[in-house]
Amino acid sequence: MAEKPALQHVASLDIGGTKMAACIADASGPLLRVTQSTMKSGSPDTIAQQGIQLIDVCCQKLQIDPAQIQAVGVSSCGPFEVRDGATGIVPPNLCGGLPSGDDLPNDWTFLPLESVLRERFAEVRVANDCVAALHGERAFGTAPANSIYVTWSTGIGFGLCVDGHILNGKVGNAGHAGHMLLSDTSDALCGCGNRGDLEGMIGGRNFGKHLRRPLEEIFRDAQQGDAAAMGAVQDAARWFGRALYNLTTILDTEAIFVGGSVWRYNEALLAPLVRKEIDTRFPALTHGVSVQGATLGELVTDIGAFALVMPQAWTIRWHTQRPWEKLHTLHLTDAA
Amino acid sequence: MAEKPALQHVASLDIGGTKMAACIADASGPLLRVTQSTMKSGSPDTIAQQGIQLIDVCCQKLQIDPAQIQAVGVSSCGPFEVRDGATGIVPPNLCGGLPSGDDLPNDWTFLPLESVLRERFAEVRVANDCVAALHGERAFGTAPANSIYVTWSTGIGFGLCVDGHILNGKVGNAGHAGHMLLSDTSDALCGCGNRGDLEGMIGGRNFGKHLRRPLEEIFRDAQQGDAAAMGAVQDAARWFGRALYNLTTILDTEAIFVGGSVWRYNEALLAPLVRKEIDTRFPALTHGVSVQGATLGELVTDIGAFALVMPQAWTIRWHTQRPWEKLHTLHLTDAA
């Protein structure tokens, strides 16, 4: 959070593989959120231009002069790549020019973000979506100096904070721990090409795949005593717990905050299974480590993106009043 | 490194399970190093008191007034525990009161360091030995802002630097990545109780155990074409490489520096095997990551301990002149 008391409004962008969201806030909180399906054709700067357009729509609806918006915090899917000193993204689910992108209507191999946004905004800060989420949990939630945010949904992504510092890494890719290898026997294939990494084994796409039921059904059946479904849930929780144990022993973590659709299917069922994998190992490192649901809810990446650029003076008010809980979202129909 | 131009001399302590070393330095470099076997009986503050005595011996030999020594940097085996706000250690190989310590001549369960040393020195900074080593590699070597130091010897320990910040964690235990779980099938038992963690599988004690040959022999036989020995080396390098890949994807690392007795047996044989495990995965994260031998040699933890407390003004001179290369070590016979 920068110390910029002169700012009246700041913007956030949340760039995902299927959906993009723009939001404008003032000291009182976020004022309006506009979403649209992420565009997948045109020139490679389409993504950043769509973000600027969504911010402009926000301004128009709020009757704010777009020139007033000088700072934007961006939470984006990754991975990141830096070209000519500016951060862009190379996400397999958007870039048709990458080996895995055959079914996409473009030949993109790199999507510039920072360079395009800097032509319009004086201050641009880009972070991986889970890193941005942890900025949000740190600023407005209860995450302590040594904490982890993890989203367990289709993908599994992490934000990592050590000694009060949220980790970026050489080009902003710290936290890609979903691609940590855990099994030497699993042949579950991850989108990144690994076999036996965390996301490949228990990301939403592969979790309980052998049961051929929707994930929601697996969780419901497990709750109702179906042994096969319960076995799949226990297996997934065990891998997830082993990954959290690994991160705890690597980073000496104090608290872990979990969000994402898979976790939310049945946090009450998953949490004790995950805890067990941590608690039964190396007491000097795991003693007292907490595992809990993320506190900022589904807007965590939008709110986290604001935390990247908003004046520190706004933070206390947001922390106390949780103004995003009353935020209105307007969904735009897809662009032509 | 603190900005303390008034300091004339500083001390370092390197506390290991079998050996302790004390050293005194001035602006020109370390002046003398005194080592002794680590004491294993008496009261729990024996370890810290032995450290103070070794510093006093250094002073006496150098004809320096002990009262002049006001700052000490400590690199120590772990894990750490904080009691009453002060860091101590709970190492299984020194504490006879811990479950694994049956063959030790004491009932220690916690060894105070910081509290005892603070009674004698105005400034005390304690770090895990591999964390201290990375402070040394950063200050006097070539380690960049996103780098890892790893010792591969009997144990496997790490120092982790992200965004120019060397990670400590909630009580200074960041970097215990040797206890990262990697295999779901190995029954190799680690001293920490894990089965299938990195240290349990390929630490010096278990590396190639089925061959029933000394490790030095395994490396020699592998070099001479013995298939079984080569298989053991390849297997170990593969696990080591997978661990380094995991850390790279978790932390977005740029450079990895490897030291330790196992690595030094045959760096030339190990390095390409390790590299392969990194290079064949997730290019956006692993592209350009370097793996190389540590640059400070066997004194890396002593030199790293100095980096914790020495005036920054000394750093450039040490960096250029590498004064520790001419350092004299005096080994004391064991205390009664």
Structure, described:
Chain A has a 6-stranded mixed beta sheet with strand order 8-4-1-2-3-14, sandwiched between helices. The model of chain A has no long low-confidence stretch (mean pLDDT 94). The first copy, chain A, folds into 2 domains: 10-133 and 297-331, 2-Layer Sandwich (Nucleotidyltransferase, domain 5), CATH 3.30.420; 142-293, Nucleotidyltransferase, domain 5 (2-Layer Sandwich). Chain A is built from 11 helices and 14 strands. In chain A, helix 3 (129-140) crosses helix 10, helix 5 crosses helix 6 (227-251) and helix 6 (227-251) crosses helix 8. Chain A is globular and about 60 Å long. The first copy, chain A, has helices at residues 46-62, 114-118, 129-140, 198-202, 215-223, 227-251, 261-265, 267-279, 283-286, 300-309, 312-321; strands at residues 10-15, 19-26, 29-37, 71-76, 80-83, 86-89, 111-112, 123-128, 147-152, 156-162, 165-166, 255-259, 290-293, 329-331. Helices cover 34% and strands 21% of the residues of chain A. The first copy, chain A, has 336 residues and is α/β, with parallel strands linked by helices. The two termini of chain A are 36 Å apart. The longest helix of chain A is centred in the last third of the chain and has 25 residues, at 227-251. Chains A and B meet through strand 10 and helix 6 of A and strand 10 and helix 6 of B.
